[in-house]
């Protein structure tokens, strides 16, 4: 799997820019990273246990902590700081954004939630 060459937090635009060693470059919104957190709080402990995240439109990333040579921990403004974003998972989020983001918006709509 590709590894990040650079990870840069853009606080003003609330995005995390990641450049991978295979040339993939992505600017991922904080809200997207928050609602797709790899934490058990979001994903659950098994299939079908994920919790739909709502009210995350204004969340931003307060900080980034390196975890060894394989992941980062993102510290969000809503206090969420669990879940390790491995290089593989960040790459998946970067390369599948065009699929995952509309799926999330569709789930919100189906649940009757209106984004602010």
End-to-end CA span: 36 Å
Query: C-alpha Rg, in Å?
Result: 14 Å
β-strand percent reads 25-35%
Strand order of the largest sheet: 1-2-3
How large is the count of helical segments?
4
CATH A-level architecture:
2-Layer Sandwich
> What is the mean pLDDT?
95
Reported for the largest beta sheet, the result is:
3 strands, antiparallel
CATH topology type: NE0471 N-terminal domain-like
Find the count of extended strands (DSSP E, 2+ residues).
6
Q: In terms of per-residue confidence, which ranges show pLDDT below 50 for 5 or more consecutive residues?
A: none
Structural classification: alpha+beta
What is the name of the CATH class? Alpha Beta
What sequence of helices (H) and strands (E) makes up the elements? Answer: EEEHHEEEHH
| Number of domain modules | 1
Oligomer: single chain
- The helix fraction, in percent, is 25-40%
Q: What shape does the CA trace take?
A: globular
């Amino acid at each position: 799997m590709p590894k990040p060459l650079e990870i840069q937090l853009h606080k003003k635009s609330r995005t995390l820019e990641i450049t991978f060693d295979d040339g993939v470059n992505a600017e991922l919104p904080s809200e997207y990273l928050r609602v797709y957190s790899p934490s058990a709080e979001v994903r659950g402990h098994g299939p079908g246990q994920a919790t739909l995240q709502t009210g995350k439109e204004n969340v931003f990333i307060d900080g980034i902590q390196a975890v060894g040579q394989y992941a980062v921990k993102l510290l969000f403004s809503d206090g969420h700081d669990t879940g390790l974003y491995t290089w593989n998972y960040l790459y998946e989020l970067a390369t599948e954004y065009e699929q995952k983001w509309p799926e999330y918006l569709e789930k919100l709509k189906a649940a009757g939630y209106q984004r602010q």
